Amino acid sequence: NAGVTQTPKFRVLKTGQSMTLLCAQDMNHEYMYWYRQDPGMGLRLIHYSVGEGTTAKGEVPDGYNVSRLKKQNFLLGLESAAPSQTSVYFCASSRQGEAFFGQGTRLTVV
Amino acid sequence: AQSVTQPDIHITVSEGASLELRCNYSYGATPYLFWYVQSPGQGLQLLLKYFSGDTLVQGIKGFEAEFKRSQSSFNLRKPSVHWSDAAEYFCAGVNAGNMLTFGGGTRLMVKP
Q1: Of B36, B90, B101, the CB nearest to A59
Q2: Interface contact flag, B43 A97, Cβ < 8 Å
Q3: Which among A2, A62, B95, B108 is most buried, taking Cβ atoms within 10 Å?
């Protein structure tokens, strides 16, 4: 049972480049979330999904897009990366609010 | 806005001393509340959760938390801290729309 898997684990982007972070869960959870974690800021919710085909904005959605075409996958896209998006990104899936987290993706935008 | 807040950014305690980490929530109805722990370079691990019923909940690693509606609090406690408890601790809550949000975190340091 893999739980929540994020790929890639590390990435360096140049300003203006695009990329997609993949989150996959094998627990058949309806709810999935993308967070970013910055020093002193805790975890801030970017976007979330309450089921296949649905997405919703969280606290800091600007500059990001998401898709949930399949229940087990939740993709986070950066269309034009900016240095302010340098962060550690965590994906989570949940059942009854109890969240299970991936190991994180460290993204640096130079 | 519905949220959770953690007033203390850093806390330092001596090994063997008791610990209390504060969490306050602001939700219209009784929310689901959680405490998570994050060790350096790791993801988050669930310590305990409160949905309803008994207001004192027990978690893993000897932690407990008490839900107090009158104070809008869900403080985390441990009677005797071990050096391995040094980590960052996050309080979290889920609102009616299933949006899971986190407090800013409290970094715990343990003195030998």
Answers
A1: B101
A2: no
A3: B108
